[in-house]
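FAQ
Q: What does a multi-component entry look like?
A: The components come first, one per line:
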Amino acid sequence: MSLATGRAGLSPVSISRLDKLGVVTTLIALAGLFLQPFMLFRANRIVLGDPLELWQSLPAFVWVPTLGVILAGIGLTLVKTPRTVRLSAGVAVLALLAVVVGVSASYLTPEGDSFARVSPGGGFWILIFAFALSVTDSVARLRLGPVPRVLALAAVGVVLAAILYSGLWSDLSILKEYAGRANSFWQQVQVHLVLALGSMAAAAVFGIPLGIVSYRIVRVRAAILNALNIVQTIPSMAMFGLLIAPMAWVGATIPGAAELGIGGIGVAPAFLALFAYSLLPVVSNTVVGLDTVPREPNDAARGVGMTDLQRLVRIEMPLAFPVILTGIRIVLVQNIGLTVIAGLIGGGGLGTFVFQGISQTAMDLVLLGAIPAVAMAFAAAIVLDAGVELSRPKGAGAQR
Amino acid sequence: MKWALGLRLVAVVLLAAFIFAPEMFAPVFAPLTQFGAPPIYTQSAILDLTLSHLMLVGAATLAATILAVGLAILVTRPFGAEFLPLSRSLANIGQTFPPVAVLALAVPAMGFGAGPTLVALFLYGLLPIFENALTGLESLSPSVREAARGSGMTGLQRLVRVELPLAFPVILAGIRLSVVISLSTATIGSTVAAKTLGEVIIAGLLSNNTAFVLQGGLVVGVLAVLIYDGFVAIEKIAARRMGQSVPGTA
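Then the predicted structure of the entire assembly, as tokens:
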């Protein structure tokens, strides 16, 4: 707070001209700039790093303007400025940081040294966090519609892909981990997606009818929902582990199962575990969705002589669809995260790198698995949220 | 309803028996082992692991509750209204972070042991509590607010005597969600050497001993179900006291 008052004392800017959120992000950004190292340099992949400040991480002709832009960005968010100015300032600083971190990695890596590892330090991440907060706030206040949100996500994706393709980040430690295992990385991404999306699809195929049944037959509703609730309480590690033995048995005894890839080790137990966790959100959202269908359209449909099946297909399901889609969104985001655990039981996916990294204390390898998983979950959430919003009839509550 | 209560009592008794004297259950788990492997995990006492597991979850949830409820109060006051849109979208974004990833990302920053687990549980526990506290504080009917204001209560009095008690059942529901998620997530903490019941499951996975996996999973699962039920019961009592209808528990 002393900073805010200090500034107000020096200039005609009074306290009321300060943006409250700006004060918070400014304090965070300054802590990132001055209290934490911008980069970490390590002689090899598992030793502790040497901390380097911003001015030690870059040549003077780069760090001086960089510091200038960051301070200008802080200034623009600290005082009350128009939303578009704040948004552009935040995006500009984030883009600059993305470029500078790559330049710094190349600058710090000694010529021809393939053991040295350079990674962003705490200060870099804190700066990213501070400006991401500011951008998130501006975006939230702009109230972007579903289509612009997806387009913005696509634009960010294209920029990140371009940076990765250009080789700007190639000297960063996480990409050195990637370079050594590019093939297996993409293979595991594929396994990860197949597991997360496949189990989601299976849960939709079985869960929606199950939801319709539990909506129609009140007596079985509590039993089904309670059973699925209990499934959720089983820790994921145990669930994955417990399914190994039964799957091995199925693979060994049922003809044709082994050819389908069903066995004790591999994707089968992981798929089944994810499927079990996915059922509750799908079933309960189907029940809730059908339950919230207003009476009038149903009465009208009965009046014109529709059968129960016709009403279900033409009236109830379309009206319940947004709520069911919300359940599917929960499942997909949750499954992308849970699939990481499959790495622990040999089920593949990005968790393979996370747990390999943990056992080798190679943190870059942990990040190589964790960051894409987070990014996929985040992208899935934005796309499906947009889908939920678009599927809602116009004028029906804009709230989540 | 009677048989449900009976079932719970049986679960409590069995769980307590297993935690205090796991050897008693050796014959039950023996058929799951191969090549004469031990049917019961004895590397650490199940009692110690359970206590340490519950302490981790309890400490993380307590810290998360204090911060989340505090933040929800802040953003629903006129002073903090500016932070409302941001905190809403942060709660939304935060939920897309998988708990395992939070744990994995905390390890580079904090090293191995209970530390990263505590941070992961804390961060992940914040979101459901914050969302529910926000809903609870925001969904008070305007007439209640007006009545409180009309009777001459100050802002603080309104918060402590009217808003928080009325929002309490909804906040409890958020804490319940958070605790149940944390109980399961804490097991993953054992992959980074935190002392939790996950140790039993991992030992089972590494030595191909289904008995270990099952007993670790069962203890955590039964604990979660019982704690969940306990919270639901308290929520019902709290809601009844406030004269509200029982909130949905699904």
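Q: Is there any commentary attached?
A: Sometimes. For this entry: Residues 1-10, 396-400 of chain A have pLDDT under 50 and may be disordered.
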